[in-house]
Fold this protein.
Amino acid sequence: MQRIAVFTACLVLLFLSSNNTHAASKRKPIESKVVIELSTTMATPGATVTLNGKGFGPYKSTAFNRVIINGLSALVQRWEPELIEVKVPFKATSGFIEVMIGKKKVLAGLLTIVMPQIDDITPTEAERGATIQITGRHFGLSAGARDPNTMFGVNDVIVGGVVVRPQRWKDDTIELEVPANATSGDVVVRLASSDPLPDGSCCAPVEYIRSNAVPLKLIPSIRVDPVSGPVGTKVVLFGQGFGQSKERMDDGVLIAGKPATIAQWNDDVIVVHVPLDAESGPLVLRRQGQERVLTQFTVHVPHITTLSPSSAPIGTLLRISGEHFGFYSESGATPYNFMDFNTGQNRVEIGGVPAVIYRWNDDRIDVWVPFSAKSGKVVIYRSATRPNLGGLCCAERGTMAIEAGDFTLVTPTVDAYDPKSAGLDATVTIKGRGFGTFLKTAEHADLGLNQKAYKRRADIEINEPEAGTTVLSNVSRTEVLFNGAAALVQSWTDQEIVVKVPHRNLYGIGKKGDFFDDLATGPLVVRRGSWDLLPDGTCCSPKKWLTVEAGQFTIEAKGLPDDGYWTNNRPDASTSQ
């Protein structure tokens, strides 16, 4: 009986085994022969992972075609017979990736989920608008707002509560510009992720994976203007939080380690001047024992390229061209040169005589040759100081002297003129040398001319500059006079002047209570005008004239208007119209 029982059990087992084998042959097993290659075996939530293989078939629906990452459905972005792209779910953990094609399940491989990690920020203190670099790992990739997948969220960085789109993004390095509205606080890298809805369709609201937080201190921005110049240059620091005044002895502004001369110190602006012994180097703000490098300051040395003309009479506009002359009125304490217009000791001398400054730019200086000028060196003097202990003004006041070249003063000389007499509007040619150039620039003979033009005047004087209470007629500084009346200049060169005979001498010249009706004969005069600076260096003395007489000239009664016009100036009066 025992042998029969054992035999029966063996038959049952053989039958069951046969049935299981037959059933298994009808079931589709897990594909073990399909080889799938993953684009990466390590990814962050929200990253795109590509699966390359064969036999995926066409995409039918979210229920038929699915990708599972360690039990969580991933959002399918692309499905082709040989390629699948999916986004790693927000809550995904490390595990296997499985491809579901209907009831078929294909094992794709193992995926390790990693989180972004910030290791360092450089610098840890920065101004708004500065560029900072974040180094670390597992930042993934980001195309920013240009990413075609922006609907799934965009990886970004938060700086002090403000979302920033970086300028450069790599898996281990991020570079960004600190926005103007950021505040001191934590820097956090955020990776966006958007998961599928429960039915596998798109999309659940975007969520963000956050890295560790690293603090960043934002310091007030300071603008330095300018960042280069010669000694004496006014340098202004625009910012905030400087303090209402210089509080400590060692507070100051340093250029290459040497203190600059402090002209003004307020909470939002500091004005300093580049000292006499300055050298190029870092410009540093020292306050309350802390130093902050603001920029590199370059100390320039003025350089002359041309001096034109090298010889001329008084009143000539002398042009000095070059570079790094600085600016004329920057010796004051205000942030802007035009506010106080303090020129300090900036000046130009011709043969030791101060010239009248017409224009002073960084690359060009124009001066009028003064009345008392002498032949000699043309020298530019650049005003500067050396500060006392603590940076206050001044242990020394001095100048930097730059030679521009030699200048020869010329005296006008008349050799001949022709004709000696002529009628109205006739041309007269004066030949000689040293006449200089004709000045085309308008220039007021009286500083108060514009105000006086609106007042009723008791009299108008002609060519009497000593009368300080009247409007003067001689507003030119290069002119030819026929017995005191100015002629119209046709041409003017250094050797020849051509003028027209004026009308006024025959018509009469005068003022209230005093009239001259016969000025036909008198001296023919060529003259140039100029000024000198006052003893205190300000501008200017009354205009002075250098006069050269050519000889006597007679204006003939020719070219006068038809007398009939004066006797019958209304022809229509005798008509009936």
Q: What stands out?
A: Confidence is low (pLDDT under 50) at residues 1-32, 444-473. The longest strand covers residues 396-409.
